[in-house]
Write a structure and sequence with these properties.
This protein is α+β, with helices and mostly antiparallel strands. It contains 7 helices and 5 strands. The protein has a single domain, classed as 2-Layer Sandwich (Alpha-Beta Plaits), CATH 3.30.70.270. The chain has a 5-stranded mixed β-sheet with strand order 2-3-1-4-5, with helices on both faces.
């Protein structure tokens, strides 16, 4: 994986500079060195993120604004397209009982939270590219808002949605291990008809599951199951 190799090379350079910094600051206060080392790590994380995003964009898998039918295979489609596709999957379930999973991802990384627009776009681009490598060809990835992504997976159940999120986590962990690039996600997983058969209901439950997981320190949460109709009608 070219991105992994690039991350390892950047990590090697970071280690060399950190050793040199420690040598130069041998007589300095420990807190001062710790602060300098933290700043160095942050800068290298940003450099690694930008380099990997550029690499994936060159290869045609990191586009943020895809779905226009142009060349290549863009990773992310627009929010309006997501809603139309979601409505199509709901109709297919209603007519042919075909299930599907919906997974919402919230991105945390270099400047993704309350940071510069450039840093946020880089973090989302990297997660979008990692998703491109984690999902099946029939799955579709959409940009929902500033830091949120959504995957629609035809034919999948909740179990498949959770496995998808776990594959993405492993990909991001590999990048962090290789080059110190810290990009985290929180995911909320639901499936139709297990968690509901209406678009707003599914999106709401996925969002709730994502925030509930984050509140307890877990990366992946599953939505509350839809109640059987007989219970609802009592």
């Amino acid at each position: 994986m070219a991105a992994g190799q690039l991350a390892r090379e950047v990590s090697s350079l970071q280690a060399t500079l950190l050793a040199k910094l420690h040598e130069e600051m041998a007589d300095a206060d420990g807190a001062l060195f710790a602060g300098a080392a933290q700043k160095l790590a942050e800068e290298f994380g940003s450099v690694t993120a930008t380099a990997i995003a550029t690499l994936w964009e060159r290869d045609g898998v990191g586009s943020i604004v895809g779905g226009d039918g142009g060349e290549g295979h863009p990773s992310l489609y627009r929010p309006g397209q997501m809603r139309r596709r979601l409505d199509q999957l709901i109709e297919a379930n209603r007519r042919y009982e075909q299930p599907f999973a919906l997974v919402v991802f919230d991105v945390e990384g270099p400047a993704a939270r309350n940071g510069s627009g450039e840093g946020r776009e880089t973090a989302v681009a990297i997660v979008g590219a990692a998703l491109h490598d984690s999902v099946r060809l029939v799955d579709e990835t959409f940009r929902l808002e500033e830091d949120a992504l959504c995957v629609l997976a035809p034919g999948q159940t909740t179990v498949g949605g959770v496995q998808m999120a776990e594959r993405l986590l492993r990909s991001l962990d590999e990048l962090e291990d290789a080059g110190g690039l810290r990009i985290g996600i929180s995911a909320g997983v639901v499936a139709c008809p297990e968690h509901g058969v209406e678009a707003d209901e599914l999106l709401h439950k996925a969002d709730e599951a994502m925030w509930r997981a984050r509140a307890v320190g877990q990366p992946v949460g599953v939505g509350a199951l839809d109640r059987p109709q007989a219970v609802q009608d009592r």
